[in-house]
Predict the 3D structure of the following.
Amino acid sequence: MPDIKRHCENCNTETIHNVSGSGMIGTCLDCGHTFNKKEKKMNIYEKMLKISEEMGRLPKAGYNAFHKYNYVTEADALEKFRDLCVSNKVMVVPSVLSSVKEGDITTASIEYTIIDVEKPEFTVKSLCVGQGQDKGDKGIYKAITGAYKYFIMKTFMVPTGDDPEREEQKPKGNYTPTTKPASKPSGSKYDVCSFGKNKGQRWDSMEIGQLEWYQGMFLDNSNDSAKANFKDDNVKMHQLITDLIGNKKNNNASLASQARQEVEGIYGDDEPSF
């Protein structure tokens, strides 16, 4: 068989190859890689399946100290996924379709386009929703981070052991919850929270740290000219929660100190934990 110079995809160099007379089959004399032009290349779905097989199970290396649970970090998910995309010649392009901010919760809908680099006309689209909690301008970035992680885990069927529909399990160790279980909701909006993280929980059963967040939100809303039609309700709710906080502080001064620590845990600079 003649020796000819051609590009080797394995060692990525122009090297001498020992090839057959037809030029269809040959071996790189530098790295020993054998090529066969008749070999069928994988389509986008086969590449996605291969990535899913090679992802394996992701470890829950992150820990949420406030809610006391372990979670898969975005860095762990993305690092392995990126390497497999590169090796399988797959590219992922995200597009934010919409984002809505309510209070300090930002919800983003993001479409991910999975592209076969070898045949870019073949693509697969996946839609994911993410949420981020932040009083400042970081909410959208936290929402994008969460959505990307769950896009990887759900689109490529990556097991972690998490199940959002599973009953809450008691944490291991001597952990005592700082928040009492909410009583059965009853009464009007002045009795029961109707939105946010504590939706369905009675106002008087919340901890001071939780109440302080709603207190600040209702104060901001009452001063927002764009929400003038709801000013009276916001003022009422702000006063109600202010009174609740005052009563709780008077009844238990040590509880106030503990609640401030919890609020700092919720609204620190760290990304939300999943």
User: Anything to note?
Assistant: The helical segments are 44-55, 74-87, 139-155, 208-222, 231-251, 253-266.
